[in-house]
């Protein structure tokens, strides 16, 4: 998801050591990783449900029927003219 290189991670860790301190930094990192995993899991579930809804046959049929109706209307309009 994010493209973070080694140098960026190193800078973040050094700043964390300076501002947060060496005692609290490991706990903060663990909590951030847990939060990231939870967000990733929720997004994965949302994406899966969204794809299932979009991929349903009923939706495909509705789209096909709409396109067919437009085609028929266009054919009727061209015949009337």
Helix content: over 70%
- Main sheet properties: none
Shape: rod-shaped
Using only C-alpha atoms, the radius of gyration works out to 26 Å
- Give, in order, the helices and strands: HHH
SSE class: mainly alpha
The number of E-state strands comes to 0
How much is the average pLDDT?
Answer: 84
Number of helices: 3
Amino-to-carboxy terminus distance:
55 Å
Pick out the low-confidence regions: none
Strand content: under 5%
Q: What does this protein structure show overall?
A:
This protein is mostly helical. It has a domain of 56 residues. Helix content is 84%, strand content 0%. It is built from three helices and no strands.
List keywords for this structure.
84% helix; 81 residues; 0% strand; 3 helices; mainly alpha; single chain
Put the structure in a nutshell.
The protein is an all-alpha fold and 81 residues long. It contains 3 helices and no strands.
């Amino acid at each position: 998801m994010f493209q973070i290189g080694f140098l960026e991670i190193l800078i973040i860790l050094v700043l964390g050591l300076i501002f947060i301190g060496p005692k609290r930094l490991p706990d903060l990192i663990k909590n951030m990783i847990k939060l990231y995993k939870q967000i990733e899991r929720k997004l994965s579930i949302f994406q899966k449900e969204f794809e299932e809804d979009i991929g349903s046959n009923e939706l495909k049929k509705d789209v096909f029927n709409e396109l067919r109706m437009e085609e028929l209307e266009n054919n009727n309009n061209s015949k009337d003219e």
